Amino acid sequence: MSGWRSFCAFWTSTSTCRAFFPQNRLNAPYLNTLPKEKEPPYPGDLELERRIANILRWNAAMMVTRANKRAEGIGGHIATYASIAELYEVGFNHFFRGPEAGLDRDLVFFQGHASPGNYARAFLEGRLREEDLENFRREVHPPVPGGRGLSSYPHPWLMPGFWEFPTVSMGLGPIQAIYQARFMRYLEDRGLKPKSSAKVWAFLGDGEHDEPETVGALHLAARENLDNLIFVVNCNLQRLDGPVRGNSKVIQELERLYRGAGWHVIKVVWGSAWDALLAKDTEGHLLRRFEALVDGESQRYAAFGGKELRERFFNTPELKKLIEGMTDEELTELTRSRGGHDMVKIYAAYKAAVEHQGSPVVILARTIKATGWAPRSWPRTWPTR
Length: 385
Known about the structure:
By secondary structure, this protein is of the alpha/beta class. The protein folds into two domains: 25-55 and 75-113 and 154-271 and 338-377, Rossmann fold; 288-336, no CATH class. 45% of the residues lie in helices and 8% in strands. It has 17 helices and seven strands. It has helices at 2-13, 15-20, 46-70, 79-94, 115-125, 130-133, 172-189, 212-215, 218-223, 250-261, 275-280, 285-292, 295-304, 306-313, 317-322, 328-336, 343-355; strands at 107-109, 200-205, 229-235, 238-239, 242-243, 264-268, 361-366. The strands form two sheets. A five-stranded parallel sheet has the order 1-2-3-7-6, with helices on both faces. The radius of gyration is 22 Å and the shape is globular. The N and C termini lie far apart (54 Å).
């Protein structure tokens, strides 16, 4: 037995072992999976789509605020939708297919706490009236005559003409989406329905992965080769009562989880403002600094801006050389430039996910909670404090 232990100790210490079994073999570098040169042209009007996203953020925030003025304690999540708006809009505008697509229609499990954004979009489309928005979370006794109450979260029993799937409590959406995709494939494999290109999309939060229902069926999806399933994880790095992972990187943790379960992983970490610096970094200094970054540090830079980034992030001679000539305002833009708010990066990730074959796909998108509001509120919402 001692000889076997000696052999194991020798094997694990050799460069051969490290070459075949690297320590972080389930993690790719903390970069976008798709580099800039692999991004397809964006098919929409970026300026118009960004403007619409900001209008929706405003309407969602005002709907929740007015509801709480009418009835103290009504509650409602507004920062969650602010962080996921672009992820939704790129899907709505360029990918999601409705009932008019027939058997190829997509099914979407929306992140439950972002429901105010869905209501705000339905209002803009003319599907809800102003009186309906005034009755947010007041289904039993709507205070505004002529309007119907809007449920707190996606609730097809309370709003059968609006919601298709219940996704709260947290964790219900992901596991439902997996079994929905599995059942669709089951029917096709047995000739009970024609084969189609329909996709099941599920939007969920990073903190939602602490729920056992979120992760309990991941292996099933990979084992059944459910390439009709796409998860989009809104990694805004914050939960209701504090950071999701303050002293590590939740995106890297989730990448290991999904890749270990057999999923194809696409990371959307950095926005376009970082592209020039990444191209300039020919010796890997910026990449090494990314690897040392933790989520708590990221949130600090988003809260305090360019001066903080210059002093604490670009903290070596090599890194300082990369940003020579850049102003604090330009550095502040870097702190705000996360991949989950960059429609060009999101479109590239969605297109790659839709075209992928052979396994389910997860997109890990880094966002900022409360983005689109006054910058002073970014990562300074009360959970961070």
